[in-house]
Structures are given as C-alpha cells and as structure tokens.
Design goal:
The chain is mainly alpha-helical and 127 residues long.
Length: 127
C-alpha cells in the first residue's frame, strides 16, 4: 500500500505544482491588461473576458521590445539604461545578478553548464 501511495504522489504532486504555476503566470499576465486605460481593456472592447489574453499581450510586448533593442539606437538606449542602473546601490546588485543568470541561460556559445564546480568560501569565526 505504501509503495502505491508514494507512486501516486510522485505523479500527482508535480502535475499539481505545474498547474498552479501555469495558472499563477496566466493570472499575473492577465492582470497586466489592467494597466491599459479602461476603454482599451479587452473586456470593455469585446464585452467578454478571455482568459490568457494577457499572456498574448505580454508576448507581443517582449517581441516588440526585442525588435527595438536589436538595432543600433536600441543598443545605445540599453547601454544608457544599464549605466543608470549601475549607479543605484541596491538595484545594481539585483540587476547585474539577474542579467548574468539570463546571459548564462541564453548564451549562444554553447559553453554554459559544461562543468560542475564546487565553490567553497573560507570559514571565518564560528559559522
């Protein structure tokens, strides 16, 4: 009986967590539509609520942003933005850490995650 219980949990828990995460993301993206003026919101224009429309809008915004920053002027604007962010103490650390993670995940060099490494910090004091 215990074996079957564990096997069932190993199937249902990942499915449930995945469903909750997807629902959370779709709900967050749908709430981005609330940033639009009331008369431009899809619910007001269409008269019905379409779940997931915020995901489509968010995808369009990301693609358009990519198109804009891929040209010379866009790269200059991004460089200026990064320069400004690098001068804000708390924001600087968060932004550069997030940027480094994204560059590692999406690098085209093919060298990401090739080696496993252990980094140890020297112990100081009791801890």
């Amino acid at each position: 009986m215990r074996k079957y219980l564990i096997a069932g949990l190993l199937v249902w828990i990942p499915l449930g967590v995945t469903a909750l995460v997807v629902k959370l993301l779709v709900d967050v993206m749908d709430r981005t539509l609330l940033l639009l003026p009331a008369k431009w919101q899809p619910d007001a224009l269409l008269g019905i609520h379409i779940p997931g429309l915020g995901v489509v809008l968010s995808l369009v915004v990301v693609v358009v942003t990519g198109i804009i920053v891929a040209n010379f002027l866009g790269r200059r604007l991004v460089a200026l933005w990064e320069y400004l962010l690098s001068h804000i103490p708390f924001v600087r650390g968060i932004y550069h850490a997030a940027k480094q993670v994204m560059e590692t995940l999406f690098s085209s060099g093919g060298q990401s995650f090739r080696k496993v490494m252990l980094v140890e910090y020297p112990r100081k004091g009791i801890w």
